[in-house]
Amino acid sequence: MDSSKQTDWVARSLKSVWHPCTQMQHHETVPLIPVSHGRGAWLYDSDGKRYLDAISSWWVNLFGHANPRINAALKDQLDRLEHAMLAGFTHEPVITLSEQLAARTGHVLGHCFYASDGASAVEIALKMSFHAWRNSGQTGKQEFVCLKGSYHGETIGALAVTDVQLFRDAYGPLLQRSHVVASPDARAAKDGESPAEVARRAAKDLETLLQERAAHIAAVIIEPLVQCATGMAMHDPVYLTEVRALCDRYQVHLIADEIAVGCGRTGTFFACEQADIWPDFLCLSKGISGGYLPLSLVMTRDAIYDAFYHEDVTRGFLHSHSYTGNPLACRAALATLAIFEEDDVINRNRISAERLTAALAPLAAHPRVQHFRRRGMIWAFDAIVDDPVQAATFSRRFFTTALEQELLLRPIGRTVYLMPPYVLDDEEIDGLARRTQAVFEQVIGDRS
Q1: pLDDT > 70 in the chain, percent
Q2: What's the CA gap between 415 and 410, in Å, rounded?
Q3: What is the Cα–Cα distance from 218 to 287, expressed in whole angstroms?
Q4: 33-66+344-444: which CATH topology?
């Protein structure tokens, strides 16, 4: 495509497309990238310039763009069934996907309820928790607890349990108040305090609340191991162990939001596996379809399912989405799970993660870097930026400079993170580390 056509794409998009999570005026100085196609870990613009997708296109793309095996599954499914309503009907892809996911929990979470996106899955879990307590006669349990800095989505219910001011402040009057308790973020360690001790201290804060309000609290919602949108805040697995025990003791549901951290991202297929616990509700989305199609789901226990199983229709979970359990999305998810098994992805990722961590060692040792951290296939560090003006523009400057180095990186404030797809080869790993350091050094030294 010639440059005039690329310019036309951008102009047309700015005129007609309202882009997400964006102050549109910024695109007067930061141009849109018109993506033409993708292949493996790379995105290509309409001029043929490429960008290593080091954030998996907002954390969704696990096995590369235009993956041949996922493509083949979708092409096959297109000739069979593109969609059918899931109310009163069913189909093989949604059945098999539900069975395979339940098996991964040892059938502790044996029931799957489907939606299209992560925020919708959170809404389902919140509603299902409240409704299950109501069906069991505990109508007073209507409150929810989230962590400081938590992010669970931007619909009204999900935003009510989100504690990121940027997203929730404008809509505060619309939101139900939730309880916010201490985060187990290991960066909050006091002198000599280990990550496990930070986690236990945070769990004590939750316990104090439950001692007072358990009769009114329906559920605690957490992002296991990594609170992503608040700046990749990582915590020790002991926090999950402690919270599971507290929820059992005080009769409160535990919701694990694994939308971003599930599907192998933290080093195990489910993040909760690292604490050897299972929640009452587990939310999945993003990577479950390999980054191909909108799909989300909530997994839950027999006891929750049984609370709704009744001849009275008003005791049923009366919630639906038009594309619930879409066959194409479910086939993409099944192809994704097949790749996990066929390629021994979890073990292969450990090898790739060690290589990238070693390649990032010079950056981790940089005097303007603090809190370099990793959990599974997520890396993050915080930039030390003393000047307030430079700090305020750090993310945008880093993003645009990274594009010049053929990298798609999108920092959260002063937190630079890498969340690449699981398909990087050794050359791409080394190049990612080298170029990320070059971008950081250029941006941190930029006084313009």
Answers
A1: 98
A2: 9
A3: 28
A4: Aspartate Aminotransferase, domain 1 (3.90.1150)
